[in-house]
Amino acid sequence: MDGTKLSNRIVHEQSLTQSQQFFLSILQMNQQELRDLIIEELQSNPLLEEVEEQPRQAKAGESVILIESDSLVRSDQSSDYDFEAILNQNRQTVSFQEYVQSQIDTIKVSEELRRILYYLVNCLDRKGYLTVTEGEVAVACHADRTTVRKAVSVLQSLDPVGVGARNLQECLLIQLKRKDQVDECIESIIHSGLALVADNRMEQLSKETGFELQQIKNACKIIKQMNPIPSQGYDTGERIEAVIPEATISFQDNEYTIQLNDTVLPKVQLDHYYQTLCKNKNLSKEDLEYLKKNKERACNLVTGIQKRNQTLLLLLKELVKAQPGFFMNGSKLRPLSMTQVAGSLNVNPSTISRAVRGKYVQCSRGAVPLRMLFQTGHETTDEREAVSTSEICTEIRTIISKESKGKPLSDQKISEALREKGIVIARRTVMKYRDRMKIPCSFDRKET
Predict the structure, then answer these.
(1) CATH of range 377-445; options 1.10.10.60, 3.40.80.10, 3.40.47.10, 1.10.3720.10
(2) Is the omega angle on the peptide bond into residue 335 within 30 degrees of 0, that is, cis?
(3) What is the per-residue pLDDT for 235?
(4) I need a surface site. Which of 175, 355, 428, 429 has the fewest CB within 10 A?
(5) Per-residue pLDDT tens for 333-371?
(6) H or E element that contains 257
(7) Inter-CA distances, 102 with 118, 200, 227, 353, 354, Å
(8) Would you kindly state where each structural domain of the chain is located, as residue ranges?
(9) Which residues pair with 380 in a beta bridge?
(10) How far apart are alpha carbons 408 and 383 in whole angstroms?
């Protein structure tokens, strides 16, 4: 950052009042962070009191949902959840790695295979996926590729089903083969159409694969029952965050409803007794100063929460206007920037960035990160509108799924293939999106 920009930033921050800075910090918090702040303030600020309400379970759309970004399985919006119970749920004490290793200890394999299997277990990521190539394992374990391939096969035969998969496609196929549910239609969808499954684009899937629409729907129903995260339910050494949607967006008769979810937040107000005490002139100067300081902070908190809700409501209304197809029927996202939304709401783009940070909204697609609704647009060579990042990622997956396994396409070749489809992006952009999707480079995709 150059000196001029840094100077402007310091001047801007200094020009904000204390209450404005406090509001921006509240706006940036998600539900759980704000809840923690309110509880902390209730414990330390005598000018703040909790408004007692009748206890009740969260209603539909107000549920606490455990999110994994790769999940294809939708959350059950009709279920009731106890917020405290979920936050304090007990975890299994046996770690994921220990569980897999305990099976390796008991199976009948050669000592060489067992040695490689122990190495492979240490190469599993937190989801249970294998993060190394056969070539890398062969070098590290001083073994030939045939033996490594056999070890990977043994690992993938263990529980939980799907462990040792190299990608989502392989993880799903392992589960389906174990259940003897693989057919030509399902295999075709898994190899080239998972992005369309996630977007619920059944007709497009039918068109691209050549299978009847009803076959596609039946296959997708089976696929969505699979678990994309083999390690789910086991201790992986990482904390799974409980995500609380900020609001529920629903459509009925082409009209949408936005319901803010504040059921997990304690309701607070200024304490009447201490407010009266602030006017007592018999108190010492120090006591009055203490009460005045805490009253100001309590007022800032109450006002900040109200302004946060108002800002989120305006933002969500604008997002529904900008992405109506997504909220109505799960269709593709349009290119949309935070600057565009900031202009429509007449606020600074940094305010939008704070408002979406770490927040989710519940809709027909399940719990969706607000940040996901903003998509970069790329130019096209024809008269179409700019295409979004998610569309480009879908095209890249499709191109790679159809490449020769013995001669996979380079990023430059993929860039050229996209240009033939009317999408103009550079080689380095292809590499960025490929890395984001955890797709290996052409060298590592090559099969001998």
Answers:
(1) 1.10.10.60
(2) no
(3) 64
(4) 428
(5) 788 888 889 999 999 988 999 999 888 888 877 778 898
(6) strand 255-260
(7) 10, 39, 22, 46, 45
(8) 17-56+249-370, 96-156, 168-223, 377-445
(9) 423
(10) 31
CA-wise closest residue to 323 among 360, 372, 359: 372
Please state whether the predicted TM-score (pTM) of the whole model is above 0.70. Answer: no
Please name every residue paired with 260 in a beta bridge, in sequence order, or none if there are none. 247
Give the whole-angstrom CA distance, residue 448 versus residue 405: 8
> In 3-state terms, what secondary structure has residue 248?
strand
Q: pLDDT at residue 112 above 50?
A: yes
User: Which tokens is 415 given?
Assistant: 């860039």
Whole-angstrom Cα Rg for the chain: 27
Taking the C-alpha atoms of residue 337 and residue 376, their distance in angstroms, rounded to an integer, is 7
Round to whole Å and give the CA distance between 145 and 364: 46
Q: Give the bridge partners for 124, in sequence order.
A: 130
C-alpha–C-alpha distance, residues 236 and 125, integer Å = 9
The domain defined by 96-156 folds into Arc Repressor Mutant, subunit A (1.10.10)
The string of pLDDT tens digits covering residues 136-161 is: 888 888 889 999 999 999 999 998 89
Residue 262: Cβ within 10 Å count:
18
**φ, ψ dihedrals at 362, nearest 5°:** -90, 130
- For residue 234, give the nearest of 99, 107, 330 by alpha carbon: 99
